[in-house]
Design brief:
The two termini are 32 Å apart. 37% of the residues lie in helices and 18% in strands. One of its GO terms (cellular component) is cytoplasm.
């Protein structure tokens, strides 16, 4: 559709979007071109760790833009070196490769694992991933994903990915062959409906991969950078993976991602990996501003407290409306609706000025800014209380 102000049909039609154009954001709120305000608990799919247009990120971008945008990845630049050091100092990893998107970081992790197999495991190249997993939209990352909707798309897929069942260590063990080089998973499967890998399973998986000489890759595109209440999701289980990918929250709203590896796993040779804009100082300056704030213990405690409040309120809401369990950790939570009414609830909430997400027909997902305020959480709960009453009444009449 095209109108005098906004030519909607100039954009490729790849998803259903409401005919609303957002023009401004601040913290937990967005405003559209008609000056309507929305309370945002999607935040670009867990991207805006500090909310919309945070001052720290805006200042870092403006300052860096006046100094240096990009010198090319053939040369070092200051922000990328500082951000890499901060990531290494706050994790179990030794080296960092910066990328532009989560899919690109995961593609890099797949390539790194295959390089490891070629150098050290007689050409082993298969990676065990999981049913319900989501790792991106490149051909390789779609192939690695266990998303049913991807199965008929863009055939033939990239081979070399075998699917195990989440939280079932025997299903992993049965898939290991001489061709296996790694196991790759999300600590919480977000797109599948916020299904966590248990801490016990992650410990079993770490022990199994070490026993069999396999790499363990954690895809923390959605769970990293404080989303679960710790800086990285793997920390809850007390394990040390070999490879980790980051995206979404690390840029605080700008396209930035990262591939991290231990010295043991970091085996790229010169020329194996690269990218024109990877590690450019503008994006890394934004990432540095985000990480310097999120990594503070007081910030993570406040985010943890906010997650506990949201979880408690969702449990009360679920009990009041006869709904299901609350899944997830920190500020990545899901409400089981027990009925395929997710799209209707999202639409009604949108009309009421609240943005939430339904990754599955029977599930609502909540991904607010990590510095979300108590009153904002309570406002979303109040809105959902009204919406669920309305949708439930409509279903009973039907």
């Amino acid at each position: 559709m095209t109108n005098a102000t906004h030519p909607f049909d100039a954009l490729m039609d790849i998803t259903a979007r409401p005919e609303v154009v957002f023009v401004r954001g601040a913290g937990s709120y967005l405003w559209d071109a008609n000056r309507n305000r929305y309370l945002d608990f999607v935040q670009g799919w867990a991207v805006n760790a500090l909310g919309h247009s945070p001052v720290a990120v805006a200042d870092a971008l403006a300052s860096q833009a006046r100094r240096l945008l990009t010198p090319s990845p053939a040369f070092y630049n200051e922000p990328s070196l500082k951000l890499a050091k901060l990531l290494v100092d706050n994790s179990c990893f030794d080296q960092v490769f910066f990328a532009n998107s989560g899919a690109e970081a995961n593609e890099g992790a797949i390539k790194l694992a295959r390089k490891f197999g070629a150098k050290y495991k007689n050409g082993a190249h298969e990676i065990i991933t999981f049913e319900g997993g989501f790792h991106g939209r490149t051909l390789a990352t779609m192939s690695a994903s266990g998303k049913k909707a991807f199965e008929p798309l863009f055939e033939p897929k990239v081979s070399g990915f075998r699917k195990a069942k989440l939280n079932d260590i025997e299903s992993v063990r049965q898939l290991i062959t001489a061709s296996t080089v790694a196991v790759m998973l999300e600590p919480i499967q977000g797109e599948a409906g916020v299904w966590p890998a248990t801490d016990a399973f992650l410990n079993e998986l770490r022990a199994l991969t070490q026993q069999r000489g396999l790499l363990l890759i954690v895809d923390e595109i959605q769970t990293g950078i404080g989303r679960t209440g710790k800086l990285f999701g793997y920390e809850h289980a007390g394990i040390e993976p070999d490879i980790m990918t980051l995206g979404k929250g690390i840029g605080g709203g700008v396209p930035l991602a990262a591939l991290l590896a231990t010295e043991h796993a970091a085996c790229f040779d010169h020329g194996d990996q690269g990218g024109t804009f990877n590690g450019n100082p503008l994006m890394c300056a934004a990432g540095l501003a985000v990480l310097e704030q999120v990594a503070q213990p007081n910030f993570l405690k406040a985010a943890t407290d906010a997650g506990l409040l949201l979880e408690r309120e969702l449990q009360r809401l679920s009990a009041r409306h006869g709904l299901g369990e609350i899944r997830g950790r920190g500020l990545l939570l899901a409400l089981d609706l027990k009925m395929p009414i997710g799209a209707a609830v999202v639409a009604e909430a949108f009309a009421a000025g609240v943005l939430i997400n339904s990754p599955q027909p029977d599930t609502l997902r909540f991904m607010p800014a990590l510095n979300v305020a108590r009153e904002e959480i309570l406002a979303v709960i109040d809105c959902l209380d009204t919406v669920l009453t309305k949708v439930g009444a409509a279903r009973r009449v039907a």
